[in-house]
Model the fold of this input.
Amino acid sequence: MYVCMYVCIDQMVREALRDDRKVMMTKSSSIDLVTQTDQKVEQLIIKSVKEKFPTHRFIGEESVAAGEPCDLTDFPTWIIDPIDGTTNFVHAFPFVAVSIGFCVNKQCEFGVVYSCLQDQMFTARRGRGAFCNGEPLQVSTEEDISRSIIATEFGSNRETEAIDRMFSSLRKIVCIPVQGVRSAGSAAVNMCLVASGCVEAYYEIGIHVWDVAAGSLLVTEAGGVLMDVEGGVVDLMSRRIIAANNRTLAERIVKEIDSFSPTRDDAPLPKQ
Ligand SMILES: O=P(O)(O)O[C@H]1[C@H](O)[C@@H](O)[C@H](O)[C@@H](O)[C@@H]1O
Ligand SMILES: [Mg+2]
Ligand SMILES: [Mg+2]
Done:
């Protein structure tokens, strides 16, 4: 099933990158884009999984956008971001990933991130390590943030308060100083870069559970840590995350972040 699904998705994304990168609609803001490929890939994944596991549940980015609930329960649940980096996809910027996390009892059991244009399949199973195209992954051993590259993103929220806090945090982190700040344009790819040891840490406020479910397992199985931006235990439904190579760097980043709390992924939908 999985090989067939992967081949279909790979072909679908590559053909769409060549022939159809049109924006179909926007969601939370004029820059929160959706394409037909986002929807087709998610439908293909859900259909394929349902055929084999009809009782399993799903949290899919585009299904939630269409009104499906975003509730993570103890049931076996597939958490899907069909195209992570949709803005990159629309611009043919080469970091476009498919991210699938599988959770039972609210714990990720395996995660897959396929970085389409790099043809890199990142995989992790809980307790069994993280891999890229079968090669084991290990986070960076760097303990000194002034010798680190930090990744972050600005998302699609342009509200003044959120922007002010994001730029205040960024300024403080840049001026530590760190050796570099990077934005792949995809949370999942940023987390794969942490798991691969290319980037020491990634943080973002505004992500969704589907952006980070698979990547969170890749990071921890590669020896890294996850933390809330205020230093507590990460909550994948809180829309805030730090994924780092070690606690030292994660705690250093916490000191510089002006945090805020977006509406949770599992917040009750506003009454109609
Ligand atoms: O919407 P996609 O492309 O699935 O996910 C991206 C968000 O749009 C963006 O706002 C966020 O910053 C980025 O991390 C995420 O991958
Ligand atoms: Mg995403
Ligand atoms: Mg997406």
